[in-house]
């Protein structure tokens, strides 16, 4: 059969495609932008009609509108939902279920670079559904915005069902799947979900300026999402020869590429390429990465592996946390007694950046939360340890920065209290004495 004939033979409706999924299936979905709305809605309809018994669905950062059908309250308990990283939609669903009798969404704690092995070797995902680009002349679909765990699961022998969307950018890199490996495909031309930039304030800009002063020309960047990373990018516009090797490609990083600040000329690994494992942002970002040979998507087990990250010199990693205790341990995923986000790739890059020659791993946060009522630097964490105190390197708040490496517990406590909000420093000193960290 010709490539076109193979494509046509596998094309069907969403209902027909999800009818191929057996009872008891373990279904993994594409991450974020690649979450396939038509296929997920068809799965929800099938479950609601009394089909697809005892199935589980594994998701990571699904868009709220696209995920709403499968998270409908009437399906709670009828299909098991497992979150690899909680976002707003999961938090909202958990909140609704706390008010009723539904089960909370289950959570699988896992470092991002381990998710491919987790899904294939341990979970045993037997079905993978995701959004892909249009097929090229060689019969390949690009995974577009999301190489992450998608490539490993797609190539694991799992039943591969794709939602072809012309709006999905055709991205270069190690992110291609061939039509011959697809069990079924549907077509659905809808706009991709967009994530607007969060508004920045003076605190964000102060933190961004502190971090930007630490960045050398020729450094290699990893940035998370949010106002603080955006502020860092804005403050880097005067730098030169920066590189990008990042888990997430954001509009802030793209702005540095467009301005010529990033040229990837100093990178030892993937020189000349801005490397990412997933992208999320506005339409301008999606347009920029479409058929752009200067950017490349690679699987997360490559991009986020600490020993891979460390192959570039002067890696600078910026991530956020919810809480940090006086020893430097971070809780970046649990708040108010509930799962708030997830482990994600924070520890991957904390370790990879520090292992890089001249590298710096930065944990950045506002000194307070809840409009100044709560200190983010605390005596004890309220949740799990996302980044251990032994791994934390540099901590930044709007009051300055502190290097944890080479410091004793007493020295760490003093350094962190010095960059805490002034309203909480006396209480933190008292707590440090109660814990016998300070005399």
From TrEMBL:
GO molecular function (one)? hydrolase activity
Gene3D superfamilies linked: 4-hydroxybutyrate coenzyme like domains, Acetyl-CoA hydrolase/transferase C-terminal domain, Glutaconate Coenzyme A-transferase
Give the Acetyl-CoA hydrolase/transferase C-terminal domain ranges.
281-432
Origin superkingdom: Bacteria
Q: Acetyl-CoA hydrolase/transferase N-terminal domain: from which residue to which, for each copy?
A: 6-188
UniProt keywords, alphabetically: Hydrolase, Transferase
* Matching Pfam families: AcetylCoA_hyd_C, AcetylCoA_hydro
Q: Identify the InterPro entries for this entry.
A: AcetylCoA_hyd_C (IPR026888), AcetylCoA_hyd_C_sf (IPR038460), ActCoA_hydro (IPR046433), ActCoA_hydro_N (IPR003702), NagB/RpiA_transferase-like (IPR037171)
Which BP terms from GO are recorded?
acetate metabolic process
Instruction: Identify its protein family.
Output: Belongs to the acetyl-CoA hydrolase/transferase family.
Q: Please give the name of this protein.
A: Acetyl-CoA hydrolase/transferase family protein
